[in-house]
Design a protein that fits this description.
CHP02241, Phage tail protein, globular, Phage_T4_Gp19, 9 strands, seven-stranded antiparallel beta sheet, 155 residues, mainly beta, Pnp Oxidase, Chain A, structural molecule activity
């Protein structure tokens, strides 16, 4: 670990991050208040050893990951990201899915990139709006979930 990462002995806060959409025509509409779903795990298969009931071997099977989820205030209809979501989710598969690379960066206080993840061949699979509530004074939030082929940590 570099000295910059654990300034004063503490891990970095998770509130300073950026999201970018690349591959082809990059989307500039990238302001989000939450990113979740970053993670990968190995799916295993249990194999009982024959004749020896005490042992169950966990054999690696395949990598799996959930969807990458982004949250933000409801965007304007003219938003490029809204256009991509509408084309994908409301297009009834009349056109080929447009795949993009999504890059999430966790930044330090001096705008340096501390960690970065790249999600390849991503496309929107779910687009929802949080509940409206007349007793709360909150921003209306939309959530977009993306499926992707694979991810890698780049920093």
């Amino acid at each position: 670990m570099s000295g910059d990462y654990f300034e004063d002995g503490y891990p970095p806060p998770a509130f300073y991050f950026t999201v970018g959409f690349g591959s082809g025509n990059p989307i500039a509409d990238t302001a989000f208040n939450e990113v979740s779903g970053i993670g990968t795990e190995i799916e295993t298969e249990s194999v009982v050893e024959g004749g020896e009931n005490r042992f169950v071997h966990q054999l690696p099977k395949q990598l799996k990951h959930g969807n990458l989820e982004l949250k933000r205030g409801i965007a304007q209809f003219s938003s490029p990201l809204v256009g991509w979501c509408r084309a994908t989710l409301e297009g009834e598969f009349s056109t080929i899915l447009q795949l993009r690379t999504i890059i999430v960066k966790l930044n330090g206080e001096k705008k340096q990139v501390l960690r970065a993840w790249e999600f390849n061949d991503a496309y929107p699979v779910k687009w929802s709006v949080d509940a409206f509530n007349s007793t709360k004074n909150e921003v209306a939030i939309e959530k977009i979930a993306f499926a992707y082929s694979f991810s890698k940590r780049t920093v």
